[in-house]
């Protein structure tokens, strides 16, 4: 008799590796289906749920590559990367990296970045709410201490950078977009902020220095050092303007010393 852990492990091997040894003998006989056919029913249901979850997560990729191609990719991904979480919302985090390495999609290099954007939107949708930054408390900070402040990013915000015109690709693939709209992959890099405000997900373009500043602040780098990094990327980065935009726009929701 297998223990519960051994039974669960055998079931996972049967579903994802088609290794049914040790499991078939635990399946009650009877009816029109033998043990192997009964396992197939579970296998098909599990993989169908994974494919459905990935379609919900990555609708833009499904639009770009077509349903048949997407389902083939989703099936292969599900077999190679079975979920290690009890929450199906966690499934699919590395789908973009998989597409980059999967031979049939390897020539579509921009798909990885589209996946990064859609995963960011997924994370933002499910993230916790945050109260706005306390402007009075910030105003009370002595001027000579400002450079040492560390800022906290909104948990419902993500930063996404791409060598491709990522927002253009995403917008052209949305329902209702003009059918004749085309996007040149050589149109230039996009740096994006994905953020939830008032229960709506918004995507905004960022300047290169602005992205560098926010990336550094997300790593708890002090403001002065974060600004220095931004200036290395874009010499015209205006710290005051960036802070104003991202404090009032709820990208930055806290600070500490």
Which helices and strands appear, and what pairs or packs with what?
Elements: H1 4-17, H2 35-57, H3 59-65, H4 67-80, H5 95-101, H6 111-126, H7 135-139, E1 150-153, E2 157-162, H8 166-172, E3 190-197, E4 200-205, H9 208-218, H10 223-233, H11 239-248, E5 252-256
Antiparallel strand pairs: 1-5, 2-3, 3-4
Written overview of the protein:
Helix 1 packs across helix 2. It contains 11 helices and 5 strands. It has 2 domains: about 1-110, no CATH class; about 130-255, Outer Surface Protein A, domain 3, CATH 3.90.930. The longest helix has 23 residues, at about 35-55. A 3-stranded antiparallel β-sheet has the order 2-3-4, sandwiched between helices. Strands 1-5 form a two-stranded antiparallel ribbon. The chain has helices at about 5-15, 35-55, 60-65, 65-80, 95-100, 110-125, 135-140, 165-170, 210-220, 225-235, 240-250; strands spanning about 150-155, 155-160, 190-195, 200-205, 250-255. By secondary structure, it is mainly alpha-helical. Strand 3 (about 190-195) and strand 4 form a beta hairpin.
């Amino acid at each position: 008799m297998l223990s519960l852990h051994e039974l669960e492990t055998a079931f996972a091997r049967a579903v994802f590796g088609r290794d049914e040894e040790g499991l078939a003998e635990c399946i009650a006989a009877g009816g029109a289906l033998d043990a192997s056919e009964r396992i197939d029913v579970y296998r098909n249901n599990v993989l169908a749920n994974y494919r459905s979850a990935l379609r919900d997560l990555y609708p833009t990729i499904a639009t770009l590559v077509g349903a048949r191609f997407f389902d083939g990719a989703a099936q292969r991904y599900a077999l190679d990367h079975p979920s290690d979480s009890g929450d199906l919302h966690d499934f699919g985090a590395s789908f973009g990296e998989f597409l980059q390495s999967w031979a049939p999609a390897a020539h579509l290099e921009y798909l990885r970045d589209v996946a990064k954007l859609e995963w960011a939107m997924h994370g933002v949708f499910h993230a916790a709410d945050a109260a706005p930054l306390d402007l009075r408390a910030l105003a009370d900070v002595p001027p000579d201490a400002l450079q040492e402040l560390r800022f906290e990013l909104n948990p419902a915000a993500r930063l996404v950078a791409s060598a491709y015109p990522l927002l253009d690709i995403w917008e052209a693939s949305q329902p209702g977009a003009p059918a004749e709209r085309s996007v040149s992959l050589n149109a230039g890099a996009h740096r994006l902020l994905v953020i939830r405000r008032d229960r709506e997900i918004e995507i905004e373009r960022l300047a290169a220095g602005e992205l560098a500043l926010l990336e550094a602040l997300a790593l708890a780098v002090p403001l002065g050092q974060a600004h220095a990094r931004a200036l290395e990327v874009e010499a015209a980065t205006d710290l005051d303007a960036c802070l104003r935009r991202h404090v009032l726009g709820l990208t930055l929701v806290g600070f500490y010393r």
